[in-house]
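Help needed: design a sequence for this.
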């Protein structure tokens, strides 16, 4: 990500490209923004999940598994997620 961009700008750009291609790239916000309303702002901005810093490994792994699981369910795929 370029230093002059925050996470919302590249997410908007990626989502605009995906509107044309029909593909979906999972995006998880990893941010120090943990104020009331931040989670909603990031999710409304097109991100699939949100984790506030400090990042705990179990929360990160669970979030990745959840995002992949939701994506597989949308595509009619079986869920095969293993994180150690």
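Sure. Designed sequence:
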């Amino acid at each position: 990500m370029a230093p002059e961009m925050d996470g919302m700008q590249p997410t908007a750009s990626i989502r605009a490209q995906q509107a044309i291609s029909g593909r979906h790239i999972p995006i998880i916000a990893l941010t120090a923004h943990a104020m009331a309303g931040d989670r909603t702002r990031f999710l409304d901005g097109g991100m699939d999940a949100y984790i506030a810093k400090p990042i705990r490994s179990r929360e990160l792994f669970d979030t990745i598994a959840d995002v992949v699981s939701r994506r597989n369910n949308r595509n009619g795929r079986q869920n095969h997620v293993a994180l150690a």
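The domain at 8-74 is CATH 3.40.50.2300 (Rossmann fold).
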